Amino acid sequence: MLELQHIHKYYNPGTVNEMCLFEDFNLSIKKGQFVSVVGSNGSGKTSMLNIVCGSINPDSGKILIEGQDITKEQEYRRLRRIGRVYQNPAMGTCPNMTILENMSMADHKGKFFGLSMGTNKSRIPFYQEQLRQLNLGLEDKLQVKVGSLSGGQRQAMSLLMSTMTPIDFLILDEHTAALDPKTAELIMELTDKVVREKQLTTIMVTHNLRYAVEYGDRLLMMHQGHAVMDLEGDEKKNMNVDAILEKFNEISIECGN
Ligand SMILES: Nc1ncnc2c1ncn2[C@@H]1O[C@H](COP(=O)(O)OP(=O)(O)OP(=O)(O)O)[C@@H](O)[C@H]1O
């Protein structure tokens, strides 16, 4: 269980640009739950992910994993058990390194990197087997630099690399937004497969309402630092894109847009 309890977050406190984003924000996510998060621009989706990952600290409140308080835990420590895939495919991989080197780097996540660290040749068949699941032929291009791959290929690799070592959480921050519709579809199918197979607790932020409806077992809509819709079970299954769009329009009218 991941819990955000009584989170308060101000940006630029004490300045003319002071902005209160979260005021007593609470969220509990059950182990193994796949939560899709939608919401208006600036509603706090990425800030929420950053608070979970430790990229930003809340002003007050607690973050708990299985009851253990991790609020003060440094980001690099937290990321040992969190996999994160960003909107920009360039963020999750190293362009100047080969596919093999990238896979090897992901394989060593959380382990000590000494000067002697190189690719362990005995792991190559394992990397190839992992890459084969992507169906992109990358298993035959181990010596190719990742920078020369397409955005979709890199994003598929980012997903694979972020879930290669045992993790408790997968954080997806608009991870299909920069991809063409066909590639985005492929990455979503792959995401669903990985999440189900590894039973990962997952938070996926997306602006694609269809993905939010079709994937995951809980749907959260954020607006101005609040969850204005939170559906799971049959309520989520019976939800459709039009109904979500209607809720979106309601929110926009309230905002005067
Ligand atoms: N580092 C920061 N400093 C100041 N304000 C910030 C910072 N990060 C985010 N904000 C503000 O907090 C609010 C929420 O931003 P956030 O990026 O969390 O929203 P979002 O829901 O992810 O938006 P989008 O859908 O546009 O990506 C916005 O008004 C944003 O300007």
TrEMBL record:
PROSITE patterns: ABC_TRANSPORTER_1, ABC_TRANSPORTER_2. InterPro entries: AAA+_ATPase (IPR003593), ABC_transporter-like_ATP-bd (IPR003439), ABC_transporter-like_CS (IPR017871), ABC_transporter_ATP-bind (IPR050166), P-loop_NTPase (IPR027417). Its main location: membrane. Gene3D superfamilies: P-loop containing nucleotide triphosphate hydrolases. SMART domains: AAA (SM00382). PANTHER family: NITRATE ABC TRANSPORTER ATP-BINDING PROTEIN (PTHR42788:SF7), TAURINE IMPORT ATP-BINDING PROTEIN-RELATED (PTHR42788). This is ATP-binding cassette domain-containing protein. It comes from Blautia faecicola. The lineage of its organism: Bacteria, Bacillati, Bacillota, Clostridia, Lachnospirales.
